[in-house]
Amino acid sequence: MSDEDAKRAFMQQQLAQLRGDFLRRLPERMREIELTWNALTEQWDSEKVVVMHRDIHTLIGTSGTFELMELSRGARAFERLIKLQMEFDEAPSPELLATMRKSLGQVLKLARQTLQEHEQALNEQPAELPPRAVQPEPERVRVPLLFLVEDERAQAELLGSQLGQFGYEIVVFNDLPSMLAELPNRRPHVVVMDIVLPDCKEAQVFSLARQFIEQKVPVVAISGKADFATRLAAARAGMAGYQTKPIDLISLVNRLDRLTNRVPEAPYRVLIVDDQRAVATYHAAVLEQAGMRVRTEMNPLQVMAVLDEFSPDVIVSDVYMPSCSGIELAAVLRQQDSYDHMPIVFLSGEQDVDKQISALGFGADDFIVKPIVPERFVSAISARAQRARTLSAVMTHDGLTGLLNHKNIKVAVDKEFSRGLRGSSPVVIALIDIDHFKSVNDTHGHPTGDRVLRGLAHLMRQRLRSTDYIGRYGGEEFLVVLPDTTLEAAEKVLNQLREAFACLLYQGEQGEFSATFSAGVAQTCNYPDSGSTIKAADEALYAAKEGGRNQVRVAKS
Predict the structure, then answer these.
(1) For a Cys staple, 508 with which of 96, 448, 461, 551, CB 3.0–4.6 Å?
(2) CB 148 within 8 A of CB 169
């Protein structure tokens, strides 16, 4: 059974079990609706009308979710009559009341028929829901193997050496026959190849690229040609990237990292707010099957506490809930700056387009009508989550390097300082400064200086742990927070990073050059507050500069 078939089978099993749970609760639900109606016919009351509408609306969405479409359609017909009367602050006319009574009678009849049709499922012992299938994390390649095909030997060796500093194993070939001869022995994770090679037409290169791609090996083109026609041919061949010479090393490494999943993106986090447990469980299962992390909350009054703990990328909320409607929840969240940009998606059986547009005006970003189409649901939530992360990155990260900006790296320092005190775990703060950076800008130009900054930033993201914090502290200065790290371990890691950075070569206006950095480190437990720790690291950095640069110094405690 394929993975897709297994997913579908799991969803059908879960849907069947949740449908059985809904059917077992249906008689009680219908009795509550009938009691509310009887009370209304004795004395028409606007509050009871709201309760009746909410209960019927929930019945529409829930029965539709569990593919009980006749019951859902019958309930929707009655809902139209209720909504019509809700526009007036008075009891319905005798004629309308009779029509409403007849329509509700039809809903009750459909509920009984539905129960009879699913009698076997009702008589079965309720089974536990199957465990949600855990999506395997994409394979993260630790030391990816790259085949580099470039006929200019010196350029090939230089590029291979540079890529090696970013943790890639490189095999360099100067022609296609040599690479093809090696293929039976080793399978590369990515092929990087010049599309202009001696004794080889471009069409042959593109044909070979297609063969690699068919075998799930991505191909990145490098070329001295920047015209649209050649780029189009590469795209039609399915090539995963196109780098023009002289190669922008960091741009190439970024693409290679994505292709080999060196820096995998964390799963999207979604909070579902719905007072109907079965519906929330089903929607959560759909998103989890797509690899997302989901939390469900039945009580909207508890959402604030959950937000602080779970930190979702998107909130998916039902509109009609008894204690607090989705619209009211959105209004509360939009009052606070910290949640002002968090996407809120309304999920409801409401089909009135005017009502949907009106609901969006209260702070939501999208409106999805129940019952959902799983593929469209996943696509809509993924798109919202991705946009939210992009916006968050713009607000919290430095635009050039992609690292945390000054404000947010300071927040990380304060957070880890406090955590270190609570847990008595060692936390190290490091300040890194690129040596003679002004000279780099003056000699080789500011664009080249930017490439140096990006090079160090990317190297740090690769060499440091995912639990470490890295930020751009000032122009050419970086601040790193290393939780659960001793001074000795921090010094060793930073020296390895320093040596790797010194091996990177850059092409500037005055030719080829390399750069170095100096660093100062301090441990938080030796100082009374985070500011004092940063100051100590800064003093150690100054000592490294005074001591000749291109070195790491530990602060004196």
Answers:
(1) 448
(2) no
